[in-house]
Request: fold
Amino acid sequence: MAFAGVLNDAEVKAALDGCSAADSFNYKTFFKACGLSSKSSDEVKKAFAIIDQDNSGFIEEDELKLFLQNFVASARALTDKETKAFLAAGDSDGDGKIGVDEFAALVKA
Reply:
């Protein structure tokens, strides 16, 4: 698991189980359930680096769509509706992607 040493496996499983149905993903609920919202800013930055698959310094829409698969490879992809809502919530400067500071604000929201 990519988040080994940062997140608890049981909490991650519970968080994923909580959004297994299409259109049931809520980032606030997910970040709280998996324990990420209570982590230090350094740990949140590590999580960002894992999710930023292409190491561009941003999480783009295609990376958001596969967000849950960063936690467990067999997890579902987010629906287009979930992906766009997640992006809109995190993209505070309107550039169409989520930077590390925007991600940190989203996790702590």
Remarks:
- The chain is about 50% helix and 5% strand.
- The CA atoms of residues 2 and 71 lie 6 Å apart.
- The chain has a mean pLDDT of 95.
- The first helix runs from residue 9 to 17.
